[in-house]
């Protein structure tokens, strides 16, 4: 992956997520009060507004809720990537997260496809959790 691509800004709320991805785990917030997972990492639970949160390692399995095939690059840094698939993944644990689907054939991706997480190193500090069809 090219390092001239934009990279995420890691903040206090998202640092554990990015550290886990770097270590090959998918960790997302879990509320200690209502017991629900959520994604994206943030300071309070979007379900009950509690700040009693911890990061929990989840299965990394889910299904494609919806997707698009990018046939034109989202800027010059992505020109070598097209076509690529951007999908909203519904994790087994409930939350949905936006990610890319790693595939040699974007036309085979479909709504309801079962996927599992895979990790793609972008830099020495950033590893992206992508998904692949199972």
TrEMBL record:
Residues 18-53 form the ChsH2 rubredoxin-like zinc ribbon domain. SUPFAM superfamilies: Nucleic acid-binding proteins. InterPro entries: ChsH2_C, ChsH2_Znr, NA-bd_OB-fold, Thioester_dehydratase-like. It comes from the Bacteria. It holds the Pfam family OB_ChsH2_C. Residues 58-120 form the ChsH2 C-terminal OB-fold domain. This is DUF35 domain-containing protein.
